[in-house]
Design a protein that fits this description.
heterodimer; A: 585 residues; mainly alpha; two-stranded antiparallel ribbon; 24 helices; 75% helix; B: mainly alpha; elongated
Chain lengths: 585, 106
């Protein structure tokens, strides 16, 4: 079509070689600009949240810790007061303050919907009232059930306490009743959420956000010497496509299967580029690398090395020993056995499958300069296998009768997508959910090490002629510089978390700066990046990759190996070596 | 007349070229909608899928989340695990036998 651009047949790279570094690169190259822009957002986040801690935060944390300490010394199981203190402590969040709620409201993506897409953007007062009225009875019933379960648990605990917790049968009964109360409380909490829906209109917020993001990235582009007005004009098209991608993810049926916005953004972008063609005036805003690198710098801040010990030593063995072994073996299998034509596709699929799906694929693809269609292929494979494993793994665990903690560790380490891990865990049981989500969080941290390792390996080995040895200076010249920002953000935030301590950092960093601000921004940047990938990708570019079905063979081999290895290591670690950790959960 | 016919034919051809991409786009959008509403609904017939949908809804999960910070259940879970390991019930070792019989541990 006249005036439109059809995708080029030439290979395009997620990250392009930037050559030798000069001082001018610091403000003309996207790698460096992404670092400055990413850090600007991180600094704004830190200033916004660290200066405004929740009222009486330290006193409340100390009081809840004291209660848990006293209760844990009193009984051989987690008492009612222990659970209440734990829940109250978890509910202290910097994001619950008024300014943070307003900020989140402004940045948030479209919400859930089932039949009418407009429900994702707008809910009138009358509609909210109708929803609340429809759910009121269920909430009242859930609340009454919770109160009854609490009374029963109190009686059981008091009976066990009468004999100083020395009667195993009474202890077991108390534990069971407390677990029932916990489940009833969870149900009541969810029912309350459904019965207290507030009206909303996301359209003005999205319009405002589009303008802010256009100015933000437009200034970055202008500093690098590109046209601000041209970028501005095209940006809104890309943004609207990204909003559609979010809306496809939040549709009830798609949400259940974990088909997220990255996939939809690529699909919608490709629909446009392969039919009517991407309009020429949109192209200045189709800037995959810029969005993805800035998003990755923000992702770096979420990679907190302190999280590695979240579930003690067995977690390290399951997530940090099995995963690298699988990654290396799968890459080796791809190169030596099935002889993959593209090393970058091989490592992107290997990292995606062994580490944690889409996020690992993005970081690895960027670190090794994979082509955009290779990243797209890896993400597509990951989402399809995730949807299968999410249902099949808990079903298998149930079939063979795996204990909850082992099943959680197994699913947490082997299902690609972080969100799907939680769904599979919750499908199996509460404890499985806790363990699965925590193991996955530890595994998420591996992204930093993987991206850095792959970037160095690629610069020092893969991109050399056979037998060629390169100096460290040469490695530095070739090194994708945004990875420095990615790693630096991770180190800085890990140090801040270390300085603040686990309790305060949980409130101020995890439930403040990250979840309240930078995480939401990072998601928007990735949505823009994937839309851009779609808008410049031709369907035909995928054809060579499917020859012989090698990507699928690679994925299936790696996943099968990881399933077996993790199950074995998980059993040894949680049920033979570190049984005290398992018993504490 | 001849020239007029030729130019009409060219115009018609270019119109059909102009229409084709939009038709392709419409077909593409229709396929996406069919996938979301028809295939999505049919997928619930897969054993376990209905139950998975309920779990996702009840726990307010986000299976598409790409990182642990993208959904609340991960924070709840890791905090619960941290509290459990920081303040474990007394005499865990002595009560090992009882714990060993626990349903979630077996």
């Amino acid at each position: 079509m006249a005036g439109n651009v059809t995708p080029s047949k030439e290979p395009d790279y997620v990250v392009i070689e930037s050559g030798k570094t000069t001082l001018r690169d610091l403000y003309t190259k996207e790698d460096w600009m992404a670092i400055w822009m990413g850090f600007l957002i991180l600094v704004i986040g830190l200033v916004l949240f660290l200066l405004r801690p929740p009222e009486k935060m330290n006193e409340n944390i100390a009081a809840y810790n004291e209660t848990m300490k006293a209760e844990s010394a009193r009984a051989p199981f987690k008492t009612i007061e222990w659970h209440k203190a734990s829940s109250s402590k978890k509910s202290i969040k910097a994001t619950d303050q008024d300014f943070a709620k307003k900020l989140k409201n402004f940045l948030e993506a479209p919400g859930d919907w089932k039949n009418n897409p407009l429900d994702a953007l707008y809910c009138s007062q009358a509609a909210a009232d109708a929803i609340n009225a429809a759910n009121k009875d269920a909430y009242d019933a859930a609340k009454a059930a919770e109160e009854a379960a609490l009374e029963k648990a109190k009686v059981s605990e008091a009976t066990a306490a009468l004999v100083a917790f020395n009667n195993a049968t009474l202890n077991e009964q108390a534990q069971k009743d407390i677990a029932d109360w916990q489940a009833a409380r969870e149900k009541a909490s969810k029912a309350k959420k459904k019965a207290t829906v507030k009206p909303f209109n996301r359209i003005p917020y999205l319009a405002g956000l589009a303008v802010i993001l256009a100015v933000f990235f437009g200034i970055g582009k202008a500093v690098m010497g590109q046209s601000l007005p041209k970028f501005f004009a095209g940006f809104f098209f890309v943004f609207i496509m990204a909003v559609f991608a979010y809306m496809a993810e939040t549709q009830a049926l798609m949400k259940h299967w974990g088909f997220g916005f990255p996939l939809w953004a690529i699909v919608f972008g490709m629909l446009v580029s392969n039919t009517i063609g991407t309009p020429k005036w949109v192209m200045p805003a189709v800037s995959t690398e810029f969005y993805i690198k800035t998003g990755l710098v923000l992702l770096g801040a979420e990679i907190l090395f302190n999280k590695i010990l979240a579930i003690g030593k067995p977690g390290i063995f399951v997530a940090w020993i099995c995963t690298p072994i699988t990654l290396i073996l799968t890459y080796w299998f791809g190169q030596k056995v099935i002889k993959m034509a593209s090393k970058t596709l091989n490592i992107t699929i290997s990292a995606d499958m062994s580490v944690c799906g889409v996020s690992a694929a993005i970081a690895t693809a960027a670190a090794c300069r994979a082509k955009k269609e290779e990243l797209t292929l890896a993400i597509g494979l990951s989402m399809i296998f995730t949807a299968i494993c999410m249902v099949a793994q808990p079903a298998f665990a149930k079939l063979v009768g795996l204990p909850q903690i082992l099943a959680g560790a197994w699913m947490g380490s082997t299902i690609d997508s972080t969100g799907a891990v939680a769904a599979a865990g919750a499908f199996y049981g509460e404890k499985a959910l806790y363990v699965a989500a925590t193991i996955k969080m530890i595994q998420n941290v591996l992204i930093g090490v993987t991206a850095f390792g792959v970037a160095v390996y690629w610069c020092a080995k893969v991109e050399c002629a056979p037998g060629q040895r390169v100096s460290w200076w040469e490695v530095w010249y070739r090194f994708p510089k945004f990875v420095i920002g990615f790693i630096a953000a991770s180190i800085v935030f890990s140090l801040i978390v270390q300085y603040l301590g686990d309790d305060v950092s949980s409130v101020m960093i995890d439930q403040g700066v990250l979840r309240g601000f930078t995480r939401i921004s990072r998601e928007w940047f990735f949505a823009l990046a994937f839309t851009s990938i779609g808008l410049e990708t031709n369907f035909r570019e995928f054809k060579p990759y499917f020859k012989g079905g090698k990507p699928i063979t690679l994925y299936v081999f790696g996943q099968t190996f990881q399933l077996c290895l993790t199950l074995l290591v998980g059993y040894i670690m949680f049920y033979i070596v570190f049984t005290n950790v398992t018993a504490s959960l | 007349m001849m020239t007029e016919n030729k130019s009409t034919a060219i115009l018609n051809a270019s119109r059909s070229d102009a229409l084709n991409p939009w038709l392709k786009l419409a077909i593409g959008i229709a396929l996406v909608l069919i996938f979301i509403f028809c295939v999505g609904k049919m997928s619930l017939l897969i054993p376990g899928a209905q139950r998975m949908a309920e779990v996702v809804r009840d726990h307010d999960l986000r299976p598409a989340a790409i990182f642990y910070t993208d959904f609340e259940a991960s924070a709840d879970s890791s905090e619960y695990v941290r509290h459990s390991l920081s303040y474990p019930p007394k005499n865990i070792r002595q009560n090992f036998q009882a714990i060993n019989n626990r349903e979630d541990y077996r």
